[in-house]
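Methods — Computational structure assignment.
A single polypeptide chain was analysed. Its primary sequence is given first, followed by the predicted tertiary structure written as structure tokens.
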Amino acid sequence: MTRRTLLSLVPAGLTAASVPRPTRSKPLPARRGEFVRLTDPVTENVVVRLTQPTSTSFITEPQNRFVSSREAFLVFASDRTGLMAPFRVNLRTGALQQLAEPAGLVPRAFALDSSEKRLFFIDSKVLEEVDVQHLRSRTVAENVSEFHVGGRTNEIVILRNDRLEHLRPEGSVMIAEAIQSRAFVSPTGAGCAFCRKSDAGERELWYARFGDRPTLLAKGNISCPYWRPDGQTLLFLRQIERGNNLVSEVHEVPLEGGAENFVCRTSQYAAFAPNGDGSVFVGASRSKAQPHVMLLLRDLNRELTLCEHHASHPESVSPQFSPNSQRVYYQSDHEGKSAIYSVNVELLVEPTADRV
């Protein structure tokens, strides 16, 4: 029986059937640094807290690479030294290393490139690059408020003075103006998607192939856009009013024209992400009664609760898969300050290849 078959056998309503039990924790050996094993009170799944909640720690923005499957490390931001700075933690030993000493790090604006040897981050509106092995750094661009690096050739797009620009060796090329949020490069590196707010207050999702004019793909009460791993369509959450309830659905829209398509309904997801082949989603529910991190099988629309998150702001939980889809990482402030957690899903989700 494959993992996918096992997941498909889970009843659709099985999202919080267990009776809550007191959380039990079992410290890992000292050589694992701050890692602590916790037993989720609802599912009894093992959750590993990777950072202590005595300091504030963040994973990066959605669609930024932050986990190395080759070298088994994770990069995160933390204020444990007094100022927010980027750190690397060895996922085998728990050993920590500070990668830079920025004066004004934007907490979630950092990303590894596809080689996993360079880390990009914003320090006081300056886009910096650091070699994570030798800790040599250089300035990439100035007056930057947002950025994304992606695609097979590590294309970089930046937001500067509400202008979206594509950084090229010969200089920057403007893509669009009046941008309110970060853009994200497609997995193929052929273009990027971004969001705007319309005059009616709706959110608009646009796509721009590099060198062409942007095209509008979708608008309305939408959030959390994500590339399908093959880069041919964009996935996102659409909030729909049904009676007195606000229903959260995953929708998909192709890049080269075509209608927006319904994919599946969710348990009030505030944030979500696809796995490496787009067959499984992980989501964070905004339900106050069931504040869970959940797996959702796309084709069968079946859900399984992984654990509780109890975050004060569910959209900030930002659950994301590891590059091989065998672990889920998320953040939550339910134990005090924001800390980073992981859950092993290798018995439920098939491994995937790292596409980039």
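Note: Residues 279 and 298 are 5 Å apart (CA to CA).
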